[in-house]
Amino acid sequence: MITEKDITTAINEHRQEFLEDLAKIIEVQSVRGNAEPQVPFGNGPRQALDVVVDIAKGYGFKTGIVNDAVAYAQWGEDDQHYIGVVGHLDVVAAYWSRWASRCCCCGRWMDR
Predict the structure, then answer these.
(1) 55 pLDDT more than 90
(2) Which runs of consecutive H residues, i.e. helices, occur in 28-90?
(3) Rounded distance, CA 24 to CA 26, Å?
(4) Can you count the helices (H) and strands (E) in the chain?
(5) How confident is residue 99, by pLDDT bands cut at 50, 70 and 90?
(6) What is the pLDDT of residue 40?
(7) SUPFAM superfamilies attached here (predicted)?
(8) Are 18 and 35 in contact (CB under 8 A)?
């Protein structure tokens, strides 16, 4: 059974990797696009799913994509006791020209 200590240890041991992986996810332009077979929300959101699944596999998670729309990452061997993560990867279009200031993402400064 996975304990809170197991989770805290994993986070602390992989903090820098997590930040780098977060940057990979953020780089994907996952704005909803035109629906087509295998990409019901467009190419961007599908690319985001693929990136997240690849990252999760790299950490040893059991992964999958359901109906080309939802990805999952499962930690734990027992199908009765595991941790699952729920979230979304698609975003509303951001218009860079409307940003009022600089921002920093994962150690990288981005100017408008």
Answers:
(1) yes
(2) 43-58
(3) 6
(4) 3, 5
(5) low
(6) 92
(7) Zn-dependent exopeptidases
(8) no
- Burial class of residue 41, CB neighbours in 10 A (0-12, 13-18, 19+): buried
Instruction: Tell me the residue type at 34.
Output: N
N-terminal to C-terminal alpha carbon distance within the chain: 47
Give dist(CA 100, CA 111) in Å, integer.
10
Length of the chain: 112
Tell me the β-bridge partners of 70: 66
pTM: 0.71
pLDDT at position 111, please? 56
Give the integer Cα–Cα distance in Å for 28 and 103.
17
> Cα 101 to chain center, whole Å?
25
CATH 3.40.1000.20 holds for 4-110: no
Token pair recorded at residue 94: 């951001």
